[in-house]
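User: Predict the structure for this protein chain, please.
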Amino acid sequence: MESAFDGAAAGIDHLKEQDRSSFFHPFTAIKDQRAGSPIVMARANGCSITDVDGRTYLDGAAGLWCVNVGYGREEISSAIAAQSRELPYFHSFNGISNAPSIALSERLLRLAPAGMKRVFYGSSGSDANDTAVKMLWSYNICRGKPEKRKIISRAYAYHGVSVASGSLSGVPMVHQHFGLPLDFARHVSRPDVYRDAPARQCRSEVEYSALLAREIEDMILAEGPDTVAGFIAEPVMGTGGVLPPPEGYFQAIRAVLDRYDVRLVADEVITGFGRLGAWFGSQLYGMQPDLILTAKGLTSGYLPLSAVLVGDKIWSVFEEASADGRVFAHGFTYSGHPTCAAAAMANLDILEREGLVDRVAEIAPVFVRLFRDTLSGLQLVGDIRSAGLMLGVELVADQASKAAFSPALKVAGRVSLAARRRGSLVRALPNSDTIALSPPFIVSEAELAALAVGLGEAINEVAAELRAEGHL
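Assistant: Here is the predicted structure, written as structure tokens:
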């Protein structure tokens, strides 16, 4: 006779087989999915998430940099349920609106850096980046400068995976096998104080910032200033390696952009809404952007929503050009989705009521200290860098020379899997052996310590494997 346990186990096995036979996973090797056993998440609360097999993990990555207020927030779920009963959906085309989106727009402009005038909605960071591209193009067409279309991004930056946003991304795997980037996108060096600054013999971060600003200026001059529309940057690079900007970086770049009539786009999909201990990273680093792109932390991932905040320079041109009755012919079925906006309002209520943005600033020094104390002496650890509740651990084959491992060894991926076996969820970033952490804002010091211990044990496990394989 089959026991209840056997029946449950059979159901879980069937679920996993259905996953292998029907679900096309993003950023997943099909070969690995067919051969492996998927982790099927079932429930979550606070900073922990549990799979269908009953294993519970500490989420050191907040999903994909996004579950800022933690899991299980009844206020957000209740707001979603209430709005879905009253007005679950209607479009915002042709001047039609809804109360949650109106309230959210006013609130975002109040929280944003000075000079933001309007809010445009989508569903993801990728579509926010696409919207920014089209806004820059339309802005210059309205000004009688239709050739001003090129946008400069940075190597290894991540701005999304749609055709336009994937072109802005500087991640090779996002380009390979898709015929990207399109010809409007250009890329300059990323700010890498650990590797690139010493290689260029820079004596200070300010000197390094000046060098990187000159590189952008040289590209603008080489391409022709009358063809360059914008420069896009995350305040702190996320997927590109958790790279905070060197001292004076955005000030030096802003001077160059202003000289050549180039607009600055701040991609705050990760950093917006408190991740760095300020509402926006562009405030923290004095960026003065013309467009601000947000998504993940806007709803803490409870529903998909993105928002593009439009600055005065761009909005005033659109407003003047509209005198002839032209339409801004861009938007999405779910732009200004009322239920998603209600989720965002509830999420912002939590952030403000519980002072979570200030808490990030307060706990950030504890966060980095715990990881430095636990990891700094380990053989594979080359660099530990952080900003707010973002932290990157770069793994190297040799600390003195900073020699990197062969990508074929997938060292960061192996460490991530070893950490997961210990109940700690961390992210292995592409194109560099860097482990990223970005826990929810409600994470406790004890949970941070547990994440650090789990990651340290995982690094030691993989180091032992690499020694046994002859790679160390």
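The chain has 18 helices and 15 strands.
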